[in-house]
Structures
1.
Amino acid sequence: MTKLEAVIQPSKLDAVKEALLAIGIDGLTVLEVRGHGRQKGHTEFYRGREYSVDLLPKIKLEIVLRDDVVDDVIKAIISSAHTGKIGDGKIFISRIDEAIRIRNEERGTDAL
Amino acid sequence: MIEHLGKSLSRRSGACSLCLLLLLLFCGLSAAAQSVSPEQVADLQKQVAEARGNADNAWMLVSSALVLMMTGPGLALFYGGLVRKKNVLSTMMQSFAMMAVVTVVWGIVGFSFAFGSGNPFIGNFQHVFLHGVGAAPDPDYAGTIPLQTFMVYQLMFAIITPALISGAFAERMKFSGMLLFLTLWSLFIYSPMAHMVWGKGGLLNAALGGRFPCLDFAGGTVVHVTSGVSALVCALYLGKRKDYPQELFRPHSVVLSFVGACMLWVGWFGFNAGSALSAGSLATSAFVATHFAAAAAALSWMAAEWIFKGVPSALGGISGAVAGLVAITPAAGFVSPMPALAIGLIVGAVCYFMVAKVKERFGYDDSLDAFGVHGAGGTLGAILTGIFASRYVNPIFKDARGNATASGLLDGNAHQVLNQLVGVIIAWVLAAVGTLILLKVVDATVGLRVSDEHEVEGLDLTQHGEEGYSVE
């Protein structure tokens, strides 16, 4: 089993969800995070003082998948989240040791 | 057709004339039978006076409610939104606590100190425990409303004034220290200043023959200069917040501040127009002047920001409006709408510079700009009142024969600006010296500032055991 973490632009969340649903992925976890890679932040003004804000709002998706669908999911995310500009985000892949369904204690890929 | 009409008309006019004659005869007979007695006239006069008084009282009670709303939730929201999330409740509590504490203090002795007869500097104990404050008006203050209405209206001013100071020591003041400090402040700085400007025999009272008549319609000196200057002293005495200014703290919710500021604008109609103490045309005049100054100042602050920073911010817009409202407070019932516009335009830009440049240059941590907006705006407004006040708006000065004489500079009274300065200087000195003494007293007893650990953890948790926004 593979864990896929994807940091994407918040404005791309709807497109990515739809793309995943289209290839049959219906379980995912969404987090609101802040961060940056090489993307510069912006300046805000409060009562005449300047504040540089470099932690930008992002969306992080976490999905645990069967190994055979990982490539399709990566393709789907990249095609729906891509804009070509710095700040598009990243995808990280890692191995998962075990998955358990809380409702009926099913284990392994049955739990996904 | 016309002939027919003519006949019916003449028949009608004939009938009408007869009816009229009979009516006149009847009235003449009735009038002869009973003339209107002096008692009836007196009774009618009493009813008219009562109706007038009821109209004034209705407006004054509404105004009192509006001014209280300015503190809670107006100021609570405005200040609350400007601080970091971990301190939002403590900031709101600093306003709310005044609603509770000052009410009690005012009822026991604060009102008496401010509006009792006394001497030029402070009142007396004649109204202690609100003795003598009932349904009967006090004609020296407001002849058409119960003295109790006047008392409760003034109470709302006494509440919001110390609450304004909390903007200077936000995010680092102990709740216990703040309670003691502001209670003493209300008794020994607010009440005396209110007495000098509005109380019987007050040194600066323009309406009741004070030695240095200072035109202060709704509290430019009494409320804004005193609280603003005190704020500066507090900011300097308490010192900067930890990690200020290396770390710049952003407002956690400009949305809350926005809502609060709009409530302040609306509430200010009670603050200024209510200071007419009646529901007539002077209230209208003050209402209109207030509104125009707010609008103009919002525009000039935003313009200054747009020019010097490249963007007009929401916080800048509402801060500008508040600055305009502060400046028009002493002038509201003395100036007409166009001078009000001018006052707003000037003050919006000046307060922008106070907050954006002067604070940075001198490095004091007046966290929520209580001095920059209220101290500076109030001082400027008080002086501009001496320039723009007009007898045609409010004939406050009269000669021996009761004719109105010039009010301000443009009206022909150049001297008034000096009187305004006297009032402003007295406010500055009383606030600065008094605050310093009170701070030392509280520092030596209860303590003023929270510990570094508590400051980092946040005052909501450490002072009040609460979180403003919990996750679940």
2.
Amino acid sequence: MLKFDMDKCVGCRVCETVCSSYHLKEFAPNKARLFVNNKNEFEFSIDYCHHCENAPCKKACDYDAIYYKNDILYIDENKCVRCGKCVEACPYDAIQIDKKLESAIKCDLCDGEVWCVKYCPQGVIKYDN
Amino acid sequence: MKGYTGKILIVNLTEKDFWTETIPDDTLKKFIGGRGLGAKLLYDMIEPGIDPLGPENIFVLMTGPLTGTLIPGSCKYALITKSPATGGFLDAYSSSRISGEIKYAGYDAIVFKGKSDNPVYVYIEDERVYFKDAEHLMGKDNFETEDQIRRELNDNKVGIITVGPAAEKMVKISLVNSDYYRQAARGGGGAVVASKNMKAVAVKGNGSVQVDKFDKIMDQQFKYYEYYNKNEAAKRRSKYGTPLTIDVNNPAGMLPTRNFQTGQFPEAEGTIDTESVQKVVQKTKACYGCISPCGKMTKADKGEYKDAVVEGPEYETLGLLGSNLGMTDLSFVIKANEICDRLGIDTISAGVIVSFAMECKEKGILSKEDLNNLDLEFGKPKEALQLIKDIANRNGIGDLLAEGVKYASEKIGKGTDKFAMHIKGLELPGYDPRAGWGTALAYAVNPRGGCHRRAWPPAHEILGDYEPFTIEGKPELIQEMYNENGYFHCLILCDFTRFVPVTGNPYKDFDKLIDHYAQYLTWVTGEKFTSNDLWDLSERTETQIRLFNNREGFTSEDDTLPDRLLNEPLPDGPPAGKVITKERLEKMKRKYYELRGWDHKGRPTDETLKKLNIER
């Protein structure tokens, strides 16, 4: 799972940008699957998918669009109807609706490549497989 | 072309309507973005002689082709308008979330024109534009305004610029604020926004920036990490931020002190120098996409202003609100910085205006009664802080000083123009040109006025191997440095991040840098750009802006320095006893004009316009 050393985070949002880049091959940080927030003047926080066991998003989905594969949670874009129940259910604000894709989107760990980890200039993010 | 949206959004505050216009590809290729394209738009869209604070003026939020991509340093927007401080061309830059959002919303630029009949803030989400009532925000400071708008829009992904109470009062040194701690501060852009009855602009874009060679840009990012790891200067900047400069300028005799009466402030050591700032840093912050972060969140740790918090103080603020006011109290500088940010005035101009008032008091030209009953003196924080607030609020003498130091000295008379430290009406930043004569020329010919951003000669005259006290070779150097900065401000890239690919003195390796960024522009747009194209872009931009200022009535006479800088020698340090003189400045100017293809009065010739493909 993703782990963050927030003391090192400087709020550059490279993770957001490369997250959208991995999935879209363009630059659209608002379509990222993790988000950097200002927690206060001196600290940042990051909203990201924890790939929960017994995930509330999966429970909330009436269309069976959220599924586990090797303990990682995925969204089946073909099944998703954009009802937004998973967005509401997620305790970590880690899911959003992409209007263009017409689906809910969330972290899929870049199919193992994990670009936010690879590109973070400050070494904040680690992937513990 | 990729990298661009090809569209500008025009927002007419008078009619509360909006539309888009397309920018032809050949205009984009010629002017690229930022400063260049902004200069072209401003020249074409406003009539000469208009009131900068009238509805005829426009206010442009400009991006560049690299904005909103992963490319390091591409986090800036440029604010382009006719300056109420100078009456000439104004470009002011800031890092902000809004820069990328403008592109993601589908625009290369947003132009605001006219004047609303009620206070509004404009909210733009993609193709939708909302004129939102802002009556309840009037009088609120920049932080409160941003807080309130974030609550109302309930979306922390929105990019927001705001103006503070000083702008609402048309203070000529008022700024545009964003992301709480970032300012496009110089030249009074805030007042232009407020003159349109506009309190803020919020932009959210759900689209993207598409580039031609996506994989190349993603791969190049790792090279930049390698460059950074090998670049000691970049790492030092990340560690200390811009306050480092104070330790360079002080020994060089270049540090403005007590209204430029001297260029050395020995008291800075252990009080307002690099190490002192370092001790109160709480957190390093990066602008969007930055790989060499230099933002420093500080908190005042003692005295009356304990617990004041600001991102900064940057070098310029330490200089102008520190040494230039004779202050040894870092907590004061942090507090004054915070007050300037909140009320929305430029710390550089505020520092110069307050130091001017202090010298007027010192010389017996202004009395305590004239100065709102303040016992104003160099080195006295409380009185200085009150005067800063009075300027922002136009209270008493603050009403006059809010017009800028040029106007104030003209009104006060009594020879005060000799120590009114401005060029073309814009107050001077933190480098005394008597300690390096290239800076004298760089300042004098600057279309924005007293500004250090178009060329930074200390790199060569203090840190490099150019002799500071000669005019030999300086016109060539200044042209080169203007051109080196010129294309960066079109792309738009951060002045600091761009140095990451070189080690040692970055200014010596500019020829290598230009190739890096021509390559990036090619990868982004899909059109071949060479370093020569970027050089031509800088030449074209400078001449386009010269045309604008000349059309507004500026002449070669305006390319000058305050009397103090031309004729008074500095008393301390390496420059002690040396004077620049008007003759030397004129000689440098003549050569500089010639290098630019302008006539002896600084007017671009028809031949030059033809060569640069510019229309009058």
